Amino acid sequence: MLRTFCRDKMPSHELPCLGDANINALQSCQPLMKTPSPAGNKLYSETPVLCSTSLSKYSGIQVYLKLDNLQPPGSFKLRGISHLIQKALETGRCDHVYCASGGNAGMAAAYASRELGIPCTIILPKTTPAFLADRLKLYNAEVRVHGEVYDEAKTLAQELSKQTGSLYVPAFEHPDIWEGHASMIVEAAQQMQERPSVVITSVGGGGLCNGIVQGMRQVGWENVPIVAVETQGADCFDAAIKAGEVVNLEAITSVAKTLGSLSVSPTTLEYYKQANPPIINYVVTDQDAVSACVKFADDHRFLVEPACGASLAIIYGKILHRLIEEKKLTSITSALVIVCGGAIVSTEVIQSWKKDFHL
């Protein structure tokens, strides 16, 4: 039997759910630690695995959700980025954190820096929604707006981080970040007495996927396939697989902006080639991803970004059955979906997506 947090078995007052009021209160909290904490004192939360009654009934298999949308800043990014910053503190001086981000990496860097008592500057491209800057300031981060696109913001962040004692925090491309992300699979293996038939995750630049692969190798899940999901217009992993090498997309045209890396990590492509565990890539439409976000909000009262909705679309779109028919998967009885979350979402944004995609 699985040791999970199942919504239909828990009293309502014990459900692991954060509403807007709870999030606002949490974001305005004072730092938990006044001095830098060693890497052993993790800043991320151990998130539950939830047995989804609605998704299990819909799909005909047991569906389990690893709820990393419940991390304090709203996404899985806190695992890897906090781990990176804490390792930097252990191994050397870290007086100031710099990060370029239009989304969740910046939220994670700001939160971790606040908890560790380190000044933090987040560089946002001009295309970033205004409400994100407000959220970052709740974490005491200095916010600068620079450049028309992410790459211009990244260049400034890297330049500023050359100052003595400063640390540049990338969004995904660093081994310490992957090492931190691996913790979610280690947790899931402890929460689940039986391994799932398949793990489903979104992939953008590849940091999450790299961490999942490393975690699965740690817990002995090497034979469990991963379905790695992108949206059309943010499908740099699919492009790299077809080319046999890392390639650059010309632009990100998908609504799933937080998947929006122009190129995938070379390590992700190498893991795909190693097939240990095997990785099956799949590309969904923006409408598929947004529709999954809307249905997930109805089913579980959680708001997630289309970057997360891409993974959920594998269940809602009954794509697993298609992969079995195509012999890319064998018969399966259960799936573990990584609910990576995302802070760039609100009820207003959900309504605008519904209007844009005629849902």
Helix percentage range: 40-55%
Number of helices: 15
Read across the widest sheet, the strand sequence of neighbours is 1-2-10-7-8-9
Report mean pLDDT, rounded to a whole number: 87
How many strand segments?
10
How can the largest sheet be summarized? 6 strands, mixed
Distance between the termini: 37 Å
Helical/strand content category: alpha/beta
User: Could you tell me the strand content as a percent range?
Assistant: 5-15%
Low-pLDDT stretches = 1-39
- Following the backbone from N to C, one meets helices and strands in this order, namely HEHEHEHEHEHEHHEHEHHEHHHEH
EC number: 4.3.1.17
GO molecular function, one term: L-serine ammonia-lyase activity
Keywords: Lyase, Pyridoxal phosphate
Cofactor: pyridoxal 5'-phosphate
Note down, in words, how this protein is organized.
This protein has 359 residues and is of the alpha/beta class. It is built from 15 helices and ten strands. Helix 3 crosses helix 4, helix 3 packs across helix 7 and helix 12 packs across helix 13. The chain is globular and about 55 Å long.
